[in-house]
Amino acid sequence: MSDCCKTGKHLVILGGGSAAFAASLKASELGHRATIVNAGLPTGGTCVNVGCVPSKFLIRAAGQLHDARHPRYAGIDGSGHLTDFRALISQKRSLVEGLRQGKYLDVIADDPAIQLIEGRGRLPDAHTVEVNGKQLKADCILIATGARPRLPNVPGIVESGCLTNESLFELTQLPKSLIVLGGRYIALECAQMMARLGTAVTILQRSSRILPTEAPDLTDQLTAFFHEEGIRVVTGIDLRQVGREADCIRVVAEVEGKPCTFEAEQILAATGRMGNTDGIGLENLGLIPRSDGTIHVSESLSTKVKGIYAAGDVIGEPQFVYSAAYEGALAAENALVGTSRSRDYTGLPWVIFTDPQVAGVGLDEAQARRLGINAETATLPLSHVPRSLVGRDTRGFIRLVRERQSDRLIGARFLASEGGELCMEAALAIRAGMTARELASLFHPYLTLSEGLKLAAITFGKSVAKLSCCAS
């Protein structure tokens, strides 16, 4: 970095993912300088390398194969074949490499205020980062080291060669069968993706339901859809042991107190995430991470050590690439400007890219009532949405949650083919403090899935079964 750029404060960032890049760009924007110190995953972190990008690419490919095999319209004979799995993985790699270069490395390449150093950083004190045998002096430090898959504490799991999302997306041979441990975001997305590509999949979930924090009717419907596609879902699992014999992995477990054995060619663990904080010198600062490796921060993303901030997956939930970027920029601003702006997740949407997708924003009815809110829900089956009818796919529903007295929207849940696209309108409505009546009064193009939001809002006061098309 040239002397002309050595002005302002110096922010040193451990990590090279979304939070780190957002923080460095914010530092440059504010007239300061930033140094990114990255090790582990390639530049770009989880999302572009082993998370969002490769998973959604392969999910989309598997979905196209599934739709080709299962046409929904009379008079259409469909067929689809996976002829070269290795070519599909190669195409995925090309996309990842292109986005890593174009959306990360090229973005900072011409910014003299941002420096990227490849190497494992360590914190000897609150103003220094050691990397590659050198010491970087910092006015403030941001820990944005991300998270990694956490294997369950089961005898034999490591020795079995258990896959994680990081290794699953790099397979060049499609396994004939797969056991998936877990029943949340990553587990469900990967299970359906692999099943649609042609693998026999069994999901083993410890809780009594998949997605146990969501409403039972939602998880029951999604489970039924999985069963229809031939995906076996077993809940209430108590894992005992995992072992490998040649090309077979055997899982010994108990289901409702009864011994059961499951066998498959491969096993995937999607049972949680672990913060990447080991070996970076937190003990030198007196910072003790939580049991899952994540760091506790204040609402302004500061740690208890002055000048040390943390952002992204390493601080725990919510662990989304877009929330990480938001946190990185906010932490950089607070650190460099000296402000104490609090993080605000109002209207934060989330999506699980199964088919149908599960998406949500804000509170569901049970969460609202636990907070003492007098909540009311309106649930609209997609069989009442014209777009779903013409698309021959009426699986799922749209659910809106409002505060009863004020009519203000406080949450939404979607089980729909494009639930993630629907979720953003609900997020904006909640962020803006809109009422259900105001949402119902908005123009929605006829025969769009978003019209379902209008119809769901109308459902608070009327039966849509008694409305004509486009009526309100």
Instruction: Provide the CATH superfamily of the largest domain.
Output: FAD/NAD(P)-binding domain
- Report the top-level CATH class of the largest domain: Alpha Beta
Helix content: 25-40%
Counted up, domains total 3
Low-confidence stretches: 1-5
What is the CATH fold-level name of the largest domain? Answer: FAD/NAD(P)-binding domain
Tally of helical runs = 14
Query: Roughly what fraction of the amino acids lie in strands?
Result: 15-25%
Basic shape = globular
Explain briefly what this protein structure is.
Helix content is about 30%, strand content about 25%. The protein is of the alpha/beta class and about 475 residues long.
Commentary on this structure:
With 472 residues, the chain is α/β, with parallel strands linked by helices. The protein has three domains: 3-149 and 274-337, 3-Layer(bba) Sandwich (FAD/NAD(P)-binding domain), CATH 3.50.50.60; 165-271, 3-Layer(bba) Sandwich (FAD/NAD(P)-binding domain), CATH 3.50.50; 349-463, Enolase-like, domain 1 (2-Layer Sandwich). It has helices at 18-29, 45-50, 52-69, 85-109, 165-168, 185-197, 216-228, 282-285, 321-337, 365-370, 386-390, 419-431, 436-441, 451-458, and strands at residues 10-14, 33-38, 114-118, 122-125, 128-131, 134-137, 140-143, 147-149, 177-181, 200-205, 232-235, 237-245, 248-255, 258-264, 266-269, 273-275, 308-310, 349-352, 357-362, 375-381, 397-403, 409-416. It has a five-stranded parallel sheet with strand order 3-2-1-7-17, with helices on one face. Strands 18-19-22-21-20 form a five-stranded antiparallel sheet. It is globular, with a radius of gyration of 24 Å. The model is unreliable at 1-5 (pLDDT under 50).
